[in-house]
Amino acid sequence: MFDKILIANRGEIACRVMATARKLGVRSVAVFSDADAGAAHVALADEAVHIGGPAPADSYLRGDVIIRAALDTGAQAIHPGYGFLSENPGFVEAVDAAGLVFIGPSASAIRKMGLKDAAKALMEEAGVPVVPGYHGENQDPGFLAEQAEAIGYPVLIKAVAGGGGKGMRKVEAAKGFGDALASAMGEARTAFGNDAVLIEKYIQQPRHIEVQVFGDGTHAVHLFERDCSLQRRHQKVIEEAPAPGMTEEMRAAMGEAGVRAAEAIGYSGAGTVEFIVDGSHGLRPDGFWFMEMNTRLQVEHPVTEAITGVDLVEWQLRVASGESLPCAQEDLSITGHAFEARLYAEDVPKGFLPATGTLAHLVFPDGARSDTGVRPGDAISPWYDPMIAKIITHGPTRGIALKQMEQALSHTEVAGSVTNLAFLRALTRHQGFAAGEVDTGLIDRDLDVLAKDPVACSRCRSLAALCALGLHEGQDALAGFTLWEPLHQYAVFGYRDEVLQAMVETLAPGHFRVTLEGAAHEVCRDLVGWRIDGALVPARVVRHAAGLHVFWGNAYGFDIIDPLDVAAAGGAVAGVIEAPMPGLVKAVYVEAGQRVTAGDRLAVLEAMKMEHTLSAGRDGVVAEVLAGAGDQVEAGAALIVLEEEE
CA 72, 78, 84 angle in degrees (round to 5)? Predict the structure, then answer.
């Protein structure tokens, strides 16, 4: 076993690898950018080395600097985590050339699976079923349009070097193919430096089921399947293992296909073979096809660990240090069911826009596994993926594990940034999902309901009023007494874009009457918790640096306002198109004097590794264009101004 390893990554996965390294008695070295100088993974490591600026290209993608850090600190091996350099064969070769061990597959194996078209051809040779499509080198738009017609609509355009849904577009009919192709190629060029695409048949009622494999360079085993069908814009949201509705016959077929894929390329370490599955008539052995192989540890690996009892990072370290496979296929079995929910800093009502912010308050639930790379007080940076944590539950049945997940999310508390927490909770309560009726289109079909922004009711606002006055943490024995009548106080606090006012009457210590917006509630706090109008409610009230929150199933954030300044904050200026987050202006499609209609595409902003289209909110005429392609802008920066309406 190694004495010391370097983790060439950041955030949650760096902390995850370090935890297992510490368990095995292996010292860990962290690397960090300017933006991560005070990050959790730096604090957790035994040593830490600064490697450059906040942009990934200036730090976490600098393979030569990372290798030098490993050599200088005496590390014997490098664990890449996922993302960044984890699937870069050139980096693997450089690690090998430096006399270090890459904790993962060989450069040859990564190359064979790195381009989707070549990988599909290789899998066909290995006897692994593949989706009908065009995977050739001819990238002429006209030729690709002909191939799409031959395959039959709907089709899926996919970047050959893609991942994470980037460079991927579904096309329903021939008339939309040209625009979708140009968009996919542009996004692929930006994300991967390679705009080549492949065309595949789009599977109706598709499910995304993947097989966890593990090899030692010669032999491989599978650790069963994960269902990752709950997706939005090709981004996984909630994963589970095993797959609902899976039969033993199909599990065996998929597992064997995954092992054949791994052994065909001499795979070493943890990898995932992803399949697209036709779920329209139940799961059957002839209804799955190879999509791609991820030659690294997956984000969702904890659900496999939960049902198998295997620490996959431990296996990675053991095999990379020279051991053979830790166990045979017949030694592996499934126990219970597990779910993983990805908690992100993102604004769901605004189209799942990635968000930033400082985490003024952060509490994870008891009884669930929480993999995270942030702590209270940490900032969600615009430079990196905005993941806050992965919440994992494991129970004896799927129904119990899902109930555990809903409860875990209800007890997760985040303040300082908007999150997708309410969206995740809505998914756990979705009847179709609970029944196991999952496919990749589920979220989009019910998006209006699932993405609905919960609004704080008057009872919730009553708790916020008490917190605004500092009455939420208890009072002395004489609180509420005045000479002739109960004490009256007025609370002024903000909720979204409005200023709220409430009258709070202290009836006794910990006992109040709160009147606001035409409603009145009696609110008590005792040793058990909060009671509103006599009913015990599962709410927690927290005051923090960013304001205050009432955590009551969902998270309801309020602003603390100086009572002497009750002017409501103004909203966005009508007709001004602003940057919703820090980013790079990729394109501007309008010019001064041009007439636009509501919904017209005005510009494209690249942020958080994705492209976001900015559209006109109303009809009008462009008065000014304040930014151009290539400009780096801050959140709230005015980009385009429309003439005032008459």
Answer: 110
- With a CB cutoff of 8 Å and minimum separation 6, the contacts of 595 are 619, 620, 621, 622
- Give the number of other Cβ atoms within 10 Å of residue 335's Cβ: 11
Residue matched to tokens 């198998």: 308
- How confident is the model over 8-66, as pLDDT tens digits? 999 999 999 999 999 999 999 999 999 999 999 999 999 999 999 999 999 999 999 99
pLDDT tens per residue across span 520-552: 999 999 889 999 999 999 999 999 988 999 999
User: In the prediction, which pLDDT does 483 show?
Assistant: 46
Q: How far is CA 408 from CA 318, 545, 629, in A?
A: 33, 25, 43
Tell me the CA distances in angstroms from 15 to 46, 321, 360, one per residue in order. 12, 20, 21
Please identify which of the residues 232, 296, 425, 543 carries the catalytic annotation.
296
**Distance, CA of 126 to chain centre:** 33
The pair of structure tokens assigned to 426 is 């809505």
296 is catalytic: yes
pTM for the model: 0.80
Give, in order, the Cα–Cα distances in Å from 158 to each of 61, 116, 187: 24, 9, 11
So what's the pLDDT on residue 485?
Answer: 54
* Contact yes or no for 221/327 (Cβ under 8 A): yes
Sheet bearing 155-163, strands edge to edge:
133-134, 197-201, 155-163, 166-171
Task: Give the residue carrying structure tokens 């692929």.
Answer: 188
Q: Alpha helices, DSSP H only, in 309-441?
A: 312-320, 398-410, 421-428, 431-434
Give the model confidence (pLDDT) of 461-515 as tens digits.
Answer: 999 999 999 998 865 444 444 445 567 888 889 998 888 989 999 999 899 999 9
Could you tell me if 31 and 51 are in contact, meaning their C-beta atoms sit under 8 angstroms apart?
Answer: yes
Distance of CA 153 to the CA centre of its chain: 30
User: What are the phi and psi torsion angles at 44 (to 5°)?
Assistant: -80, -25
